[in-house]
Amino acid sequence: MQQIFNFIFRNKNFLLFLLLFVLSMIFTVQSHSYHRSKFVNSANFLSGGIYSAFSNIDEYFALKSTNEELVEENLRLRKMLFNPSDSLANQITIDSTSFDKNYILVSTKVIQNDFTRRDNFLTIKKGSSQGIEPDMGVFNSKGIVGIIDKTSSGYSTVISILNSTSQINAEIKKTQNFGTLKWDGKSPYTVQLADVPKRARIAIGDSIITGGRSTIFPKGIHIGAIKDFKLDGSENYYEIEVELFNDMTKLNNVYVIKNKDAEEIKALQNSTNE
Amino acid sequence: MNNVVFKFIGLFILLVLTQVLVFNNIDFAGYIDPYLYIIFILLYPFKSNQTLFIFISFLLGLTIDMFLNSGGINAAACLLIAYVRPIVLKLSFGTSYEYQSIKIENTFFSERFKYFLFMITIHHLVLFALEIFNIAQILSILKKTLFSGIFTLILSLLVISLFSRKKES
């Protein structure tokens, strides 16, 4: 017994190092898998509070561009109001016709934004006490931003579309072929659309919108335009480079959307799978 | 003694705040950020309780991880450089550091440079290897380590020479 204690005491630094290293490796591995039970995240009183205090200062510098964005969005919506037929054809970014009463929208602000790492997250200023829940969709006037990950009472973290674990159902507006939106970790301005079959007739410049096959986003929210495409290794599917409409490096006001039917649809899908 | 403790508590808070609010938003050339907060580990008194030092370094990394939502990558990298610091100190300053209490501002530039270079390289290599977590992308890991490492090295040498008291002669 004495020897065991002696051993522990002599090697206490190494043992402490080993223990904490294993702990941090567990956190790291968890952070690389989707839907982990992440223990440390920025949706808490301390980091959320600090970020929101400093974003209060920061947002003054972006007032002009934020205003311009709002006017642009208002203009689009007004055009839609006055020329219904025209607007339905091409002017809409967010297709209002598919928004029925099943969706709840909340507006909020981004208080922290990352885009330089492989797995990027945002922090927003509303949380569970304002009705935000995990797996709700986040977008702004130009396109999609991400999916809610963790919430605290006043803050939430968002898995950005610039995250290697993010997978979002998307489709090509013209041909209605759908695929999965992923990110290769390179440029914050482009994402990749995979699993689009070879027979799809695509061209550079085609619009990509959300597909509506998942319960997170409704159909028709804009994502980006095709920048480049080639066949993948198996020669059966396209690998498409999508240039985002959204500038993910400058995010300010965003909307959070909840599908009221999501739970019912998921329960149904689960019972069918079993 | 108390003075030193307060100084390092203040430095801890200051470095965490500047790291998450300023240095992580620099994004030089799109993706290069300096990780200046590790000068806390570089400057921490050389003659001190190693167990406490390891624990504080872990805490520092974990705090950064909490703000950046990065799992445990900063915690692991900080822990490792804290653990190997005595070896790096011996390599860069010679064995004499153990016997006399040297201060970072009183060291030769070449020795200080060597010490910083070793520590920053180890930290950044572990950090980016864990961040990317894919051995197939080793080139990307090395590229990020190189560029961010140079940025951190220059910035930390500048900060040290700006804020340290002049050599008493």
Automatic annotation (TrEMBL), chain A:
Name this polypeptide is given: Cell shape-determining protein MreC
GO cellular component, one term: plasma membrane
Keyword Lyase in record: no
Record bears the keyword Transferase: no
Species: Spongiivirga citrea
Entry-linked Pfam families: MreC (PF04085)
Family classification: Belongs to the MreC family.
Source species taxonomy: Bacteria, Pseudomonadati, Bacteroidota, Flavobacteriia, Flavobacteriales
Keyword line: Cell shape
Matching Gene3D superfamilies: Rod shape-determining protein MreC, domain 1 (2.40.10.340), Rod shape-determining protein MreC, domain 2 (2.40.10.350)
Record domain Rod shape-determining protein MreC beta-barrel core: where: 110-258
Function (record text): Involved in formation and maintenance of cell shape.
Cited InterPro entries: Cell/Rod_1, Cell/Rod_MreC_2, MreC, MreC_beta-barrel_core
BP terms from Gene Ontology: regulation of cell shape
From TrEMBL, chain B:
Domain of life: Bacteria
Species in which this protein is naturally found: Spongiivirga citrea
Keyword Transmembrane helix appears in the UniProt entry: yes
Keywords: Membrane, Transmembrane, Transmembrane helix
Transmembrane segments: 6-23, 35-60, 66-84, 115-139, 145-163
Protein name according to UniProt: Rod shape-determining protein MreD
